[in-house]
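Per-residue structure
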Amino acid sequence: MRRPSGEDRLIARFFRPLATHPGALGLSDDAATLTPPPGSDLVLTTDAVVGGQHFFPDDPPDLIAKKALRVNLSDLAAKGARPAGFVLSLALPPTADESWLEAFAHGLGADAQAYGCPLLGGDTTRTDGPATITITAIGTVPTGAMVRRGGARPGDRVVVTGTIGDGALGLHVRRDPQTAARWRLDRQQRQHLLRRYLVPQPRNALAEALRQHASAAMDVSDGLAGDLAKVCAVSGVRADVEAERVPLSDAARAALASEPALIEMALTGGDDYEVVATVPPVATAALVAAAKAAGVALTEIGSIAVGSGVDFRDQAGNALLFKQLSFSHF
């Protein structure tokens, strides 16, 4: 009888308990099966999080796992999709020992259960580089109903969930702890920004309402300005945004009160994992009501017009000019 390899034992101990979908076959095969409900499309999305880029090596493993899954769930939410499952690829450095894996699997399993998105399969390997976690999430929508980037039309309203800028500001505080004092943040405000950077809050509770009412949407991962510009580019329209209406947390407002120039970081820095959407005027009230019922903050920040690009203006009507619209790895 073949003795199980170290990888087999690792999978059996830490990840097989997460594979609750019957199509995962208990992680005993080379692939999984997934049958969408009748009249449904599958929606696929993938994101990788890399140590030193998307998280810090000494961040808690359970929270790293949650971030890895949630950034993908955020994409599904913006497409109006219901989570169906995910596959996981892990490239782990030698420092990721069994205690690290146990905590990682615990956090991953908790979110997989909370969001109804079970593990279907994946791969594990070693690396001499930083830990790299790649997740491909799968969702379902009624046939032809996925919310795309290309549906925005002149006259539509621009709305955004949650608050903007916390992720980018939180990363700045994480890199330089002295920043919190310079921005005159209290302990609660500092912790809020750090938490928002490390543990996104995907808006899956609003997915169905977005599918019913939004003309276009995408998740805000690389910065509100740049991601809204992507929607406009595919739709062939322009967005006019009133910067003072962009929702900010108390912590972000405190930071901006100390350094007003941080508005650029807040609007372009990324790591928010909120949803920006365009909504026809006749559907706006229904989406606002659905968001309230789901417990998701939703704010109207502007409108869609004929033209191209994104125009952010301050209270005086002056255009805000940014060095770049969004974060980019390249």
Notes: The beta strands are 40-50, 82-92, 119-126, 132-142, 157-161, 216-220, 238-242, 274-279, 298-305, 309-313. DSSP finds eleven helices and ten strands in the chain. The mean pLDDT is 93.
